[in-house]
Amino acid sequence: MDPTTSRHQELIRQTALFALDYGVQHSSADAGSLGTRLFLISTQLEAANPDVLINSDMPELSGVITKLQSILQCTSYPTTKFQIDQVRYNLGVFLKSSDFKAEDEMQELLANCNTLLKGLRVYESAAHILANPPNSRTIEYPMHIKEKLLSGLRKQSLCASCPNDDGIQRSPRWHPIRLLLKQKPLGVDSQTVDFNVLVARTFQERWQDVGLSISLREKSVGFAGENQPRGSSSRRQESILGQGMFCRILSEDIFARVCFDFRNGYFLPLPNGQALEQRPCPGFGITLTTVLQKYTLQLKDKIQLAHMTAQAFWQFYDTELLYSKWNSDCILFIPEQHKGVRRVPNKPYISIQFEVSEECQDEYLSEYSLLHRYPRILAFAIMLIEIGLGRSLQLRRCNGLATQVNADFDVACQGLDELKKTPWENFGNKDVFIQAIVNCLASNNYRPVDITDGTIPRSEQDQCGRESLEISQRRGVFYDKVVWPLQWLAEVGFPGDQSASYLLENQGSPQLPRSLSTRQDHTEDIQLPSVQFHGGNCINTKLWLDDLKAINKAIYPRLQKLATDGKGVRVAILDTGYDPKAPLLAEKAASRCFKGWKDFVSGSDVPVDSFGHGTFMAPLLIQSASISEVHIARIAENTDNLQQSPSRVTQGIRWAALEQNADIISMSLGFPTSNNKAHEEISEAIEEVRKKRGRRIIFLASAGNSDVYSDETFPATHQSVISIRATDSLGTFMTTNPENTKESSVVFGAIGDDIPTSLRQFHPEASLPGSSAATAIAAGIAAMMLAYVLILPQMVKMEQGEGVLERLWTTEGMRKMFMKMSDDMGQRRRFLNPSRFFLDKPTPESRYFAIYDCL
């Protein structure tokens, strides 16, 4: 503190003590109020950042000092006893005076003190802010509030009544839900907690603005006027009213906000609607990763976004919303429509999914040699750094958990160093933001209080590595060291201005379409035919194949440049053969795709198919991935013949993998799980070729149809095979699919219905909708993605990424890719949607990062 400020601080402090003493002796409320305010000002001056304070003009401080000097009749605090007594006397005269002028001067001085106190908050040093978190945390949700929110949404977002375009309700699913992360103030009389959510029938359709209220009192509240306990009849009525309520409100556009109260396990609708608070455009939303690529975050945007996400992360840290890491790919923004123009408000959402994720990573890691033991907090630190920099960090992908965590930590440290050097103009508290990130990266902040440096705790834990007491401790630390500093920045840096601003689009970025498109972006290098039909709620359900063709067409020229290097994508189909004279296969463009043939049934040297099933699968593959090289192994004459010849399937696997060097083996076939011989022989062949190929091969198989076998068929159940189920063109899973009996696994669906007539008309008896067709199309999608990764180095400069992308050539890697490019349809089911992937990732760079990230 400079000498002048130090003298002023001492004068204020001593005056505060005199005023407080006078107030006690004479029971003077005004004297007590003045003394309290002056003492707080003195404390704030002592805690202020001296460098910032010296270089700042503070008229509020000058005004208070001038007034005190006038009252005390001195310019600085005196040093002799006589002078001190004189100052005390002069203050007493002022405090004792009862005329109107003195009272006005007192009220003016108190007002000036209040203004000064508010202004001094800006000058607090980072060390003081971080060392003094508030005693009570702002609106901390009790656990019962979070449990009711998630349980209520789980029940009411489960849809079993919304029909599809053909009027038929197929398998149940959960409606898509987005939870706004911005925390609302407490509701009526501070007795309720309110949440903003968006609900839609499907991602392609409009979002409904929904308000949810939950009482802070643990016991459910009955209807007004009720004296008797709720009986079973009343509860049943509320249960019936609650179930399927989202289906009912989504049946038509009501142009109003729908509000619900939580009672007896359900969200029940309130009779009156409200004006809309959210006006989102239809569509999946824009990830933070895309926002960082296409938009410029102003300083206010950065601070508010960091605070909102950190506060929500802390609130829900002990719930299933944090079973997976929060990163820039899961924070979503929903464009809004204003007078024909789409804009993106700085309002972050999180998708609420009730399926068990395959990426349910432990909250705490006990492996040795780790630089950080809390992967979710580490991931959040990386996201804060990205927000601060205004761009994404490029994370490496490594083999081994410890190596991966340490690599992420290293990238975070490098990003933090860059952020420290990046200037934030006209903002003096950047150190507070930096320290919040440092507190995330300091793993020891979050260890249990009774754990020493040399001890790795291995406590009894529940699902996904959670131990309730330790988690409670970590939540508290996270608030004090991360949420509170960011909250202080948001409140002091932008006092009273908590409204959501609109993000500024970077110069040169593609303009957002003015229509109510279901997509937030248009691709720059690949134009999909379906885009023009996606206005409003009108969707042409037959354009999926045209989209795949458009992607293939964009890939083909660049892939041709690699042909001389022997690079390409090879797909083997194990089926009933194929008829080269079939109209769609006889065309020149299709016929040149066939590169290999082997008949394990009759030994024919020329392609043959007496049943038609394989002839139906081949054009599905070629139409989905015309850039692929196709190899056909005839392993059965027909479906009945297949069941007696698992050995031919094993021969086909070895031929395709070891002789034809296929990248993908597609098997639109299945054996009942009771066929032990098929299970043993085919499993042996799969493991053999995986070992010989260094796991660099991808297997897909149809899950089967329940009208044939009630259970999922083999080899789809093999751990090294991706099981495929059938959907329609909107992603609705067909009722003929077998049930998913694995509690923790996610299943994939591809289009097996809505097949264009041109592909079905030549073998109608073998061209039935189902998982066989879906498997061929999924194989085509997989081949298309492999081809796209092959050409990525021509479009994106890669320093270390190509080795990571090689993992896509494994079943495990392709399964992760399918997770990335699929829509959540509820009940642990995901619909392969390459159109959305290429639309949502509008540039080669964004697709590269998405693929790199998932691998």
TrEMBL record:
Keywords, in A-Z order: Hydrolase, Membrane, Protease, Serine protease, Transmembrane, Transmembrane helix
Source domain of life: Eukaryota
Active site: D575 (charge relay system), H613 (charge relay system), S772 (charge relay system)
SUPFAM superfamilies linked to this entry: Subtilisin-like
Domain Peptidase S8/S53: 566-787
GO biological process terms, semicolon-separated: proteolysis
Record domain DUF7580: where: 296-445
Molecular function GO terms recorded: serine-type endopeptidase activity
Entries under Pfam families matching the protein: DUF7580, Peptidase_S8
Residues annotated as transmembrane: 773-792
Similarity comment: family membership: Belongs to the peptidase S8 family.
Identification of the protein by name: Uncharacterized protein
Organism listed in the record: Hypocrea virens (strain Gv29-8 / FGSC 10586)
